Write the structure tokens for this entry.
Amino acid sequence: MFIWPSDAPGGEPFDPPLVTAVVRAEIGGAAVTLSQPLQYRQVDPVRGELRRSVDVVPAVTMTFASQLELVPIDARGKARRVTVVLQSNSQSPVSGSLKLDLPQGWIAAPAETPFALQRKGERATLSCMVTPSEKTAPGLYGLRAKAFVGGQVFDQSQQVVAYPHIQTHRMYTPALEQVCVLDLKVAPVKIGYIMGSGDQVPDALRRMGLDVVLLDEGALSTGDLSRFDTIVVGVNASSARPDFVAATPRLYEYARNGGTLIVQYQQQDYVQRNLPPFPAQMAARVTDETAPVTILAPDHPAFTVPNRIGMDDFAGWVQDRNLSAFTTFDPTYIPLLESHDPGEPPQRGGEVYARLGKGHYVYTAYAWFRQLPAGVPGAYRMFANLVSLGARR
């Protein structure tokens, strides 16, 4: 492998060009140029001859331990730990120092951290304390990691895609951590999370400073659910988690005894199996992430406590307003939001609320699983309000 300095483009992930051998010759008086990508050839005792492309790689790559951090405006001026993992791609030892490019007025302590990597593949985990300026305005900011090695600068993150049946591909992006500074409050609720087909919402809840426990089959079937203020059901859990389906009566008993149950968007089987607490049908979807939204119950706690929600909170969304919304539903449900794609009728079943005994039930088809990893401030504020319903026992 060859080693490059940090002269690669930033922005979107890119796969570096192939290393190519070029031969220029003259044949019969005509100039001819021949080129062929370089390959490394080896013999595997089971699979036979293998050929792999020769890649140009950075001597050092790095990745932030977290790709996104939240800084509530009340926490500006308070130090927080930032961690970067470095990896050597070099056959020989490399040493240098790591620095962070910070927004204006932010401080890192220490400002520079030394490192030494002795062999290819070795990793080092480095941390420093970063203090955002007390004057930082709400918005999205970026921290960029840079490794200084012998007069060269490396600042790329490397993702390797490697399987026995294909060529190895190395994708590169700038080593960045996104920081969202926002006006955010959340009740100190304890959350049980039922993972569905896979999402990053539990990580988002932990970014809010909440205690999150992933619930397995044993916890759902026999565990003490009353220890949670709020239970959140992940996307498509009704299709991916038979144990969730079987535990639905227990979950509604939990809610009736004072718990809060929040169900994110599900597939058609959720209503076909009569899993909602009251009758409903679903099929609607709002694909335009910029579609206007109307708050139908502005005085509901979902929009007032602990964050006052307004139209600005629906700005900057990515890929869909909602998916698998209720189309018709029992009058026991209170519709909370209205939206629709251009030319479509108003849709009021994207987020509905129902009182269950002493507790709360919310079905929300809005695309939180996309907005929260993307760092959409309004999505964090609204989801914080939903989980905070669990504090209203």
User: Anything to note?
Assistant: Helices lie at 201-207, 217-222, 237-240, 242-246, 248-256, 269-272, 368-371, 377-388.
